[in-house]
Every structure is written in structure tokens, then in C-alpha cells.
Amino acid sequence: MELSLFNIMDILGTIAFAISGALSAMNRRLDIFGIFIIAFVTAIGGGTIRDVLIGNTPVSWMENIVYVYLIGVVTIFAIVFRNKLNYLKKSLFLFDTIGLGVFTITGVEVGIQNGLDPIISVALGAMTGTFGGVIRDILCNEIPVIFRKEIYATACLIGALAYIILYKLEVDADIIYLVTSLTVISIRLIVVKYHLTLPSFYPVQPKSSERRM
Amino acid sequence: MELSLFNIMDILGTIAFAISGALSAMNRRLDIFGIFIIAFVTAIGGGTIRDVLIGNTPVSWMENIVYVYLIGVVTIFAIVFRNKLNYLKKSLFLFDTIGLGVFTITGVEVGIQNGLDPIISVALGAMTGTFGGVIRDILCNEIPVIFRKEIYATACLIGALAYIILYKLEVDADIIYLVTSLTVISIRLIVVKYHLTLPSFYPVQPKSSERRM
Amino acid sequence: MELSLFNIMDILGTIAFAISGALSAMNRRLDIFGIFIIAFVTAIGGGTIRDVLIGNTPVSWMENIVYVYLIGVVTIFAIVFRNKLNYLKKSLFLFDTIGLGVFTITGVEVGIQNGLDPIISVALGAMTGTFGGVIRDILCNEIPVIFRKEIYATACLIGALAYIILYKLEVDADIIYLVTSLTVISIRLIVVKYHLTLPSFYPVQPKSSERRM
């Protein structure tokens, strides 16, 4: 594997995702095995669901073993420095955001390579970026956080859309990568800085006798 | 896509399933992104799991894009009219029941087309009909409702069984469709009208020291 | 299907897993349909996820129908004798442990047959042994028990490792089966007898204003 800028970003993203999974697992007081599993699924879950849905099997991480080792090492790091990770908060947030951008790109690309409809490719991009976190939350028995703080996913969606538009305009691949990841990253940074949220729509409760449909 | 009666029923079912997902998400106060995702997985989740298990990938909705648009439009409708949906309760219940019947049929059919054992085809029919709701409930962090109010699934199972029997008897396809969907629909209507439930079996609790196996 | 020792162990394991699923479902007061589904996914869930991830579809139980019938019969047994199962606690624990050993072996084997990296084969072994229980717990809305009492999974991991090492040493298949299953079984028996647990790592909570990363 040659280390292009894209690969380096992919690695940083994987590291951040694995650490966020490990932290989540430690906060739920899972034991060491649980910590590894949750770190692992957070980092590779989005790509795995994408691969399964399009039939790209064995799924990617089974054939690109270096990520398995990377996640293992990162998880050990997260366990050892669990009380120090706070000092890395800003770096981790940045890596996480980079990961989101990169994973979105790989998802869209896989969709295009498989000749799928642009809207499906956008969905695959958002899925690759966010579904690792969804599985993490399901395994930790929580409502997935992206369904409550969704700007996260919205950043992916808009980035993926940018990718598709540039791709249709036959822009050079490097520029597509750059614009897509910058789109995802800057939306996320702005959203977090200004505490933006998307609206939710809570229906007025009917009288309880009428409540079940 | 030509609009046969079967297609129309399939569309009505998809609409009802998407609305039930959107309502569920709004009741859990998810944001707009969460509402779309839950509506989507409720409508296509059953067929997706079926496709993944039998290896029919990319899964159906990736290649039949019209459903993606349909669910998007329906979800916007559900959000806008969230406080009025109560007036549509009866129509939605009917659509939902129709969807159950139609989805059961498509599941059984896929099983037969793939040369699987009849009992597996029946399972695929029930799965296609009910697992969208199962994923909806898992994502919303609830015990899946079909495991507690299971006549829903039982209707699918009996309908799917009817399908297989008629198929073995080499009955005409249109008649199979009709009988299967009417079976599912009428079981469900009767069950809801007379508040029928299946038994549950709660074991007598052993003394707590013995409780873990 | 000829009944080798391996098949008999596989059947005992399936029986124990199905019963553990049925018990779990009855304890959550699910109805009869839910009981069957949970028994079923507990028994075949691990192998199903393994098959889906490597692209071995239709998944095994769809083509080896005898397991579907076996699980059905076992579940009926579990329901009828739900208040007597306590007397079988020791046998069930033994069967469950045997199942863990056998399922680990089948998982590793599938990995090797598909030419996957040894570490991936080990992961597939552990997955096949434990993920049925993970899905059971997710469907019952609990944090998967293996993430909290993980020696269970660790037994699989060490057994799978033993398998791979012996395989690389070109040891005879029967001996590999024997050693692997004895490894898994004896680790589990020792762990339960001496109440061993693996450590968990709960990070010191930062002040709440700093808590979200």
C-alpha cells in the first residue's frame, strides 16, 4: 500500500473512529473484549454494511488486513491512555471529521464503480461515513446518536452530493477528493462551532385512547 | 414499470410502511435525518435482509430507484401532516395490511425463484413482511413489536404457507397472489377487530441464586 | 448427513443455543412467535453473519434445512418444559460449551477454505461462536452479554488460534478438531468454575462540561 495523502487521511479517520468506539465501550464499562469489538465495528462497520449491501464480499477489511492490526494497536493505545485522551480531544475531533470525509468518498466511489444510480452512491457514501457509529450505538444499547445530532450525517450527504456533481462534470479525481473532503470537514466544523442542529418534528400527542395506529 | 394491480398494492404497502417508520421516528423525537432513515429502513428493511441472506446483491432498492424517491416523498408528507395523520388511521392501517400481504408474496417468490426449500421460502416471505419493522424498532431502541404482538407475523406465515401450497398445486400465478394477499389481509383484520393475541410462556422464576444458567 | 462425532457435537451445540434463545425470549415475556425467532437466531445467527460477510450465500441454514426443523422441535421442547429446564442446567451448560467449541471450528474452517488471512479466520471462528448470542441480546434490547462476561468469547478466540497453529503445522484434521474443541471447552469450564473475569477499563470521568468529545 503506497501512502498517498488519501491513504493517510483514511488511516487518521480509522484511528479516530476506533478511539471513539473504544471510549464508548469503556464508558459503558464493557470488558476488554467488548472494547476491542466496539472499536473495531465503529471503524469498519460503515464500510462493511456498504460491502454487504452491494455484494462486495468477502468484505473489504477481510482482504486488507492492515486495518485490522491498525485498529488493534489503536485500541490498546486508547485503553492505556484512557485518562489522558481528554488532552487529545481537539485532534481526535479533527481526525474523526477527516475520517468522515474520507469514508464518504470511498462509499460514493464504490457506488460509482458498481454502476449504481447517483442517488444510491450518495446514500452509500453517507452510510460508509456514519453506520459504524450506528452499530456502535446499537451494540451499546443506545438510540444511534446520528439520529439525534444528525448534522454529522448531513455533512456526509452534502459532501457525497458534491462528489457526484463534480464527477458528472468530469472534474479530475484529485480535485473531487479535495472538494468532497473539504465540504464534509468544513460543514462539520461550522456546525460544531455554532451549535447548529436540524429540526425535529414531534407530533402533537392524540388522546391516549387513540394513540396506537 | 407497468402498473399492474400487484405494483399498485406494492406501492400502497411501501407508503404505509414508510409512514409508520416516520411516525415512530417522530415519536422518539429524532431529527429530520433520523426520520428519513427510519422511514426508509422500515419500508425496505425486510426485502434488504432477504436479499442479503440469499445473495441477491446489489439489494433490490439499489436497482429499483423509484422506491427511494417514493419513500422520500412519503416521508415529507408524513412530516408535514404529522398532526393530521390520525384522521388517516384507518387508511394507513389498511395500506399497512396490504403491504404486509404484498411483501410476503415477493419474499416467497424470491425464495422459489432461487430454488430454495419451501419452508425457507415461507420464512423469506415472513421476513420480507416483518423485518423492516424489526429494524425500525431496534434503531429506536425498543424490543421489536412483532415479538410482542405477533399475530402480525403469523398472518405472514399463514399467507406464505398458502402461497407455497397453491404453487405446488400449480395454480395460476394471479390466483396465488390473490389468495395469499387476501389470507394475510383477512387474518390481520380479524385479529385486530377481535383483539386476538398468541400466548406467551413466562417460566416460573427459580430462586435468584439459581437464575443464571 | 452422516452422523460423525463432529455432527453430533454440532447438533448438541445447536440444541443448547436454541434453548438459551428460547429461555431468553420467555424471560422477556415475548409471545410464541418471538420465542421461535429468538431461538432460531441464537442458534444460527453467528454462522449467518459469517456467511454474509464472506459472501457465502444463500446462507448455510437455507441449504441445510435439517437445522431449521431441529431448532423448531427444540423450541417446542423448551416451551413445554420451561419450568423444568432448571434441572437440565448442567447438561445445557455443557451442550452450550460444546456448541461454542464446534461453532468456532466451523467458522475457522470456512475462513481457511475461502483463502482468508489466519487472523480473519480466527475472527470468523469467534464470530460464529458468539454472534448468535449477540443478536439475541440486541433483539431482546440488552447490551450483549459477551461484551460484559467476555471470557466466553475469549475461549473461542484462543481455540481458534489453536486451530490455526495446528493447521499451519499440518496436523491431522481430526486432531485439530479435538484439540480446538477441548481448548474452548476447558477454558470455559475453568473460567466458570473459578469465576474468572477479564478486566474492564473505566476512564476517570472528566468534569461534565468537558465530557462530550
From TrEMBL, chains A, B, C:
<feature type="transmembrane region" description="Helical">
    <location>
        <begin position="151"/>
        <end position="169"/>
    </location>
</feature>
<keyword id="KW-1003">Cell membrane</keyword>
<feature type="transmembrane region" description="Helical">
    <location>
        <begin position="61"/>
        <end position="81"/>
    </location>
</feature>
<feature type="transmembrane region" description="Helical">
    <location>
        <begin position="175"/>
        <end position="192"/>
    </location>
</feature>
<keyword id="KW-0472">Membrane</keyword>
<feature type="domain" description="Glycine transporter">
    <location>
        <begin position="8"/>
        <end position="82"/>
    </location>
</feature>
<feature type="domain" description="Glycine transporter">
    <location>
        <begin position="94"/>
        <end position="167"/>
    </location>
</feature>
<feature type="transmembrane region" description="Helical">
    <location>
        <begin position="6"/>
        <end position="25"/>
    </location>
</feature>
<protein>
    <submittedName>
        <fullName>Putative membrane protein YeiH</fullName>
    </submittedName>
</protein>
<feature type="transmembrane region" description="Helical">
    <location>
        <begin position="118"/>
        <end position="139"/>
    </location>
</feature>
<keyword id="KW-1133">Transmembrane helix</keyword>
<feature type="transmembrane region" description="Helical">
    <location>
        <begin position="93"/>
        <end position="112"/>
    </location>
</feature>
<dbReference type="InterPro" id="IPR005115">
    <property type="entry name" value="Gly_transporter"/>
</dbReference>
<keyword id="KW-0812">Transmembrane</keyword>
<dbReference type="GO" id="GO:0005886">
    <property type="term" value="C:plasma membrane"/>
</dbReference>
<feature type="transmembrane region" description="Helical">
    <location>
        <begin position="32"/>
        <end position="49"/>
    </location>
</feature>
<dbReference type="Pfam" id="PF03458">
    <property type="entry name" value="Gly_transporter"/>
</dbReference>
<comment type="similarity">
    <text>Belongs to the UPF0126 family.</text>
</comment>
